[in-house]
Amino acid sequence: MxxxxxxxxxxxxxxALARFLSGRGYACEVATSHAAALEALRAARPQLVLLDLxxxxxDGLETLRQVKSLDPSLPVIMMxxxxxxxxxxxxxxxxxxxxVQKPMDLEELELVVSRALGEVRARERxxxxxxxEVGGPDELVLLGESPAIRPVHEFIERAARFEGLAAxxxxxxxxxxxxxxxxxxxxxxxxARSTLAREAFIALDCTTLPRNLIEAELFGYERGAFTDARAxxxxxxxxxxxxxxxxxxxGELDLEAQGKLLRAIEEKRIRRVGGLADVPTxxxxxxxxxxxxxxxxxxxxxRLDLLYRLKVLTLALPPLxxxxxxxxxxxxxxxxxxxxxxxxxxxxxxPDAVAALAGFPWLGxxxxxxxxxxxxxxxxEADTLExxxxxxxxxxxAEAQDTVPAGAPAPGTLQEVERQLMRQALESNGWNVSEAxxxxxxxxxxxxxxxxxxxxxxPNR
Length: 461
Description:
Layout: E1 3-7, H1 11-23, E2 27-31, H2 34-44, E3 48-52, E4 54-55, E5 58-59, H3 60-70, E6 76-80, H4 85-93, E7 98-101, H5 106-134, H6 150-159, E8 173-176, H7 183-192, E9 201-205, H8 211-219, H9 236-239, E10 244-248, H10 255-267, E11 269-270, E12 279-280, E13 284-289, H11 293-298, H12 304-310, E14 313-316, H13 326-341, E15 348-349, H14 351-359, H15 365-379, E16 384-385, H16 387-390, H17 414-428, H18 433-440, H19 444-453
Parallel strand pairs: 1-2, 1-3, 3-6, 6-7, 8-13, 8-14, 9-10, 10-13, 15-16
Antiparallel strand pairs: 4-5, 11-12
């Protein structure tokens, strides 16, 4: 139930409005003076204020200014028996959302109140969705303090915030790095820590759409531009107006889309597919790629002029294998993360697990590490994760799998899951075959047979 604060020095009138709105499902508070209004504002925390333009000796516009200083987002509707265009303009300039005249039609008043509260709810939902999509600066954290990641922290501090610039005036940023190194996270942090943080953050993975649809998705289209274009649609460049557009894997754009993107950056204008008129734009562009754009430009597959415009600020993210102690730190972070997600007890990393993590090549980088830890948290019952729990041998290239025991099943198969369960049972029972068999619900002979089949042997044997 929404609370409406009615501020009117004519108490009878204020009470009458309160009775009417209460009957329509609103909770109402009444204040008959400037001081009482400010006190009720702090106590009742209303979602909307109906404010009389004259409150005895105090100008209602002064009350309006103080209300807006306390809560800039609170909608205020002015009421007065002394209506004029000049008065309405003054009220709107001072922050009023709407303006009604006394004596008022109560049904019309309800419509005005309902519309105002609807706008508030829509704005709050939008802000929530943007926060959920982007996260606040405190929720988005780039973990790690290794020498390899330190320049990334320094870059974010320097490049995130530019005071007094419109979105389109922000320098473009190009993020380079292998798959899974955190380019998307860095883009979101740059946005969340910038002056554009309250505006939209729109991300597009350029590999997810067919090339014939990318242009329509980015720049929009007019009705009739193609067979299924039954109505005009704004593209993401327009939707992200005032905020940030993040183009992941920008190297996948075709040359025609690249030309339109270049124009959007340079001229701050686009033209929708099938359109005849230009549309002004105001958006910050952050792009990312795991490809060598300079090589693509040399081969004629990426516009060199666009490359120059994109790399005004360039950051190369280091692969995980070069981040030293960060690997253990990140692994422990993911252990705690998935313990909360799946309601499991957090686990410790054994010394051999730490060594295995440090020595693994991590071709999928942080994303691959997260998946390895998530899998271990789901399958392993022991309180300590050992190297064999991580199953890293199944992720190695074929030439690097010399350490996998002969007879071990292929990764990801039912046999591999069976092997993991047997090892967990044996490990948690100190490699006592009888106890492990009892826990698994099989006979000792069956367990021994399967241990031999899958080449499972106790450590140091």
